[in-house]
Amino acid sequence: MHQEIIMAGSGGQGVMVMGQLLAHAAVIEDKNVVWFPSYGPESRGGSADCTVIVSTDQIGSPMTENPDTLIAMNQIPLNKFVASVKREGVIVINSSLAEVPKDRSDCRIISVPANDIAVELGNLKIANMVMLGAFVELLRPVKLESVFLALRNVLPPHRHNLLPLNEQALKRGAELAG
Amino acid sequence: MATKTLMKGNEAIVKGAIAAGCRGFFGYPITPQNEIPEYMSSLMPKAGGVFVQAESEVASINMVYGAACTGTRVMTTSSSPGISLMQEGISYIAGAELPAVIVNVQRGGPGLGNIAVGQADYFQAVKGGGHGDYKLLTLAPWSVSECYHLTALAFDLADKYRNPVMVLADAILGQMIETIEVPDKIETYIPPKPWATTGRKNRDKNIINSLWIVPQVLEELNLKLQAKYALMIEHEVRYDEYKVEDADLVLVAYGTTSRLCKTVVDMARKEGLNVGLFRPISLFPFPSIPLEGLAERGKKLLVVEMSHGQMVEDVRLSVNGKTSVGFYGRSGGMVPTPSEILNQVRDTLNGGSSCSCCCRTRSEEVSR
Predict the structure, then answer these.
(1) What is the pTM of this model?
(2) Do B266 and A41 touch (CB under 8 A)?
(3) A31 Cα to chain B: minimum distance (Å)
(4) In chain B, how many H helices and how many E strands?
(5) Among the four A145, B139, B229, B252, which has the fewest Cβ within 10 Å?
(6) B304 shares a domain with B196
(7) Does the beta-carbon distance from B262 to A23 stay under 8 Å?
């Protein structure tokens, strides 16, 4: 098993956390993982993306030219990365903020109205977890249960009151993909 | 026992240093290594050590110089332009025969350059950098795990040879998060240091100095240093190989670039091309003999660096014309992609030597 994922959005949409949560879940399952952030003189609201590679083998390059999957939190990063997705790859788009790309009919495209679902759940910040839930259910780089476990490790104890909300958001995403 | 966890390369450097008994850190902020002083400022006092944010890199390295005189395990870290500022101090530390560890998380250069990744400080690390006939033992990690273990090893080697040791990392290694098994305890040996200036009490006074006015005396020091470097060449060569046994072409790369090249080896093998990877871990001493061995077995070499060709010179010196040595490099923060490198591999195996992918490419063949 070897999966290369680019998660992309705007600063504040939680793409770094989404990637790190997946990485922690991979460690729980004893898999190898690399997380690499875009970094530079970034500012709030600017573009933000990270690469996550999950593998049962030793990982070579920590970056990917042609990811198996792109998770795009809005239109701008979708436009930026859509062409790089490998042939017959997967594109998960936040359909609340982005339109289905027209020129990638080779890819499997999953539309997740993540912002709308997050608002329904009462917290817009949880949109990233909806996206992650959909992706994990679809491609199984890790089990959803491992993401739940990882949440417990990643969230500091005083934030554990948010566990049910996060789990709910992950499950809602998973249902959409299932 | 070891715990499998996730860690950033910069964090691993800190944890490896503290596990090895580093108890003095002196540094000045610069991207992309800022997590090192950040973690140090919190972990070093807990370990009973000293953390000082100096007023400049020049101050940092001279604080390292002073603190190293006491025999305490000490270090500083910086990135390319900051390391340049430290060169005078590093030369003094080498001249005074003091153990110290210096980490360079390389970025794009020359000048202030940028905060993206680079490998253009190879010459500075292994060919001197500062003035005088001195050498830094130089180690190059390729993973977060090696950021931990090679930093820890650096302290043992610094003490063993009473010589500064450099860990030459890069921005990607510093910034990426990766799986790492952290041992509960690491093996480390701190030798007795009868030379240290720890208060005279009842012994003869210890003087630590790098000023030797009488030429005969300074030449003696130089000969002693050279003998020490010869011992390093004999005992401290470290390298790693991946699928070189049946390879027709062997990629030679260190640090992040060697990670990219491992992917290239796997891609090439899928196409039926017999390609391997040779990865120097110690850059000084350079693994010349094993490279010469590859040349004698008829393997072509292709050196890949994030510079316009620095380590390639040592590779060419090592094989001394016994095989062809090609080169591919990107710079200024640009990372060579595995498919770019693979194009170069195909080209080299086909006997070509021209630019095959972009104007920044430089491909050269040297054969006799």
Answers:
(1) 0.94
(2) no
(3) 8
(4) 13, 15
(5) A145
(6) no
(7) no
Show which of residues 32-61 on chain A sit within 8 Å of chain B, judged by CB atoms: 32-37, 39-41, 58-61
CATH number assigned to the domain comprising residue A163: 3.40.920.10
Q: What is the pLDDT of residue B109?
A: 95
> What digits encode the pLDDT tens for the residues B216-244?
999 999 999 999 999 999 999 999 999 99
Q: State how far residue A26 is from chain B, nearest Cα, in angstroms.
A: 9
Which of A23, A30, A58 faces B6 most closely, judged by CB atoms? A23
Do the beta carbons of residue B118 and residue B192 sit within 8 Å?
no
ipTM: 0.93
The string of pLDDT tens digits covering residues B28-58 is 999 999 999 999 999 999 999 999 999 999 9
pLDDT at B2: 81
What are the distances in angstroms from CA B50 to CA A80, B35, B57, B98, B303? 46, 17, 17, 18, 41
- Residue span of the structural domain in which B151 resides: 2-235
Are B178 and A24 within 8 A, CB to CB? no
A60: nearest CB among B116, B259, B335: B259
pLDDT tens digits for range B81-100: 999 999 999 999 999 999 99
- From chain B, pick out residues whose CB is under 8 angstroms from the CB of A20: 6, 177
For B162-196, how does the pLDDT look when each residue is reduced to its tens digit (9 = 90+)? 999 999 999 999 999 999 999 999 999 999 999 99
Q: Are A85 and A104 in contact (CB under 8 A)?
A: yes
B278, amino acid identity = F
Q: Lowest mean pLDDT: which of A36-45, A85-94, A140-149, B266-275?
A: A36-45
In a domain, B272, yes or no: yes
Q: Where are the alpha helices (DSSP H) in chain B?
A: 9-19, 35-46, 57-68, 80-85, 87-95, 122-126, 144-161, 171-175, 215-235, 255-270, 288-296, 311-319, 338-349
Q: Are residues B49 and B181 in the same domain?
A: yes
For residue A116, what are the domain limits? 2-177
For an interface test with A, which of B176, B251, B279, B335 has the most A Cβ atoms less than 10 Å from its Cβ?
B176
